[in-house]
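Supplementary Methods S3. Complex input for the 2M8-bound model.
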Amino acid sequence: MSVPSLPAELAALRETAVSVLRGNDLGDITRPSPTLYPHQWLWDSCFIAIGLRHLDPQRAAAEILSLLRGQWPNGMIPHVIFAETTNFYHAGPQRWRCDRVTTTAGGAQSTGVTQPPMIAEAAVRVGAMMSDSERGEFYRRLFPGLLRFHQWLYDERDPDDDGLVSLVHSWESGMDNTPTWMEITRPVAPLGVRALRRVNGDDALDALRRDSKEVPSDERLTSGDLFTLYRIVRELRRAHYNFREIRRTIVPLVQDVAFNAILVRANEHLSTIAAEIGEVIPARLRRSARRTREAMGELVVDGVYYSRDFRTRTLLRHETIAGLLPLYAGVVPEDRVDEMVKTITSPRYWSRFGVASVPLDDPNFLPRCYWQGPLWVNMNWLIADGLERYGRLDAAEDLRRNTVDVIASSEAMFEYYSPLDGSGAGSNRFSWTAALLIDLLA
Ligand code: 2M8
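Predicted complex, serialized as structure tokens:
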């Protein structure tokens, strides 16, 4: 593939990104990072493919197709497909025990939940780099499984025909400790965790966790929150990962605004893919897709989009980056766009490094703590795309430039960055940062 002509510094940065992707390449899957995340994650692989397409479109297509190996007979594509590795991951197969309830298409072990449906977006981006015949072949291999995944999302996760799919774990949102999810998750903290904390304090809990020895604990979830997420996995396991059963448990259920926004866009891309290979989207799915677009309007109050509690149908009134993705979905009415762009570009969210995941004036804001404040390259990428979609080209361009600058300011490809000073945090050989940098430089 032709390499864009870049100033020396950026060319070197691109080389670093390429070497990060090569280092994390496990054949036809790419792990998010060598240490923290040694398996395949659904939306990570999609962002990774968007970068890989500039290096090798066939390899990028393989990254996407490999997700189908994890597909369940019911259509779900899991959030993690476990690789053959001895590298430790804190929420590995033994926590999920999914092999007791189902199989996966390729026989790999997986988790029992899903992740934001970025597959169709990634496929269309990769397809754009291929010849007509290569693209046709790629789409034909992908389409049946992808269609079944979208159908599963509605059949399983929108049982009341709201037009919005519900998530059963914050890991499905991709934003593990975002305040919206933590508010609804904390009340189900295990009794043991509460007791231990009361008697021995947080240190006792910290001593028990095994997830983040490489990353300072103040850059991750609190131990109490982490153990609560494990408890939810236990409940899901007991409910056989079946929504009808899960509904009867204490598991929090959220109509997540970012997930549904991504689904709106994914449904459109799925139609594009179908049209190109002469396939038809079943009428039921077309209707569901329309309903999702419309239902996004139920999540907005005074121009701000929120997630909604499925059980009570009340909005979870936390402003976070998730509420900015309706722009990417293209569902924000024209007369509200200026207001939303003003919010994004206000100092509450915007800095010369990108968009913070939680507004700086929010009491929950912590600049280096995971999804509780830091900026993330994939989010900047999605928001820039949304800005461009609405013709806000200057803001989109600024955001993309700021994103490249923040990555360039340190040699490493960090997992996330402080919106206050641009310092990197989390893993430092993180695949989607590397991949999306390559895309931004193309
Ligand atoms: C983080 O989530 C995983 C669980 O899925 C974890 O905390 O162990 C999130 O940032 C998620 O969005 C991401 O896909 C995953 C792998 O990069 O890590």
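The mean pLDDT is 96. Residues 132-157 form the longest helix (26 residues).
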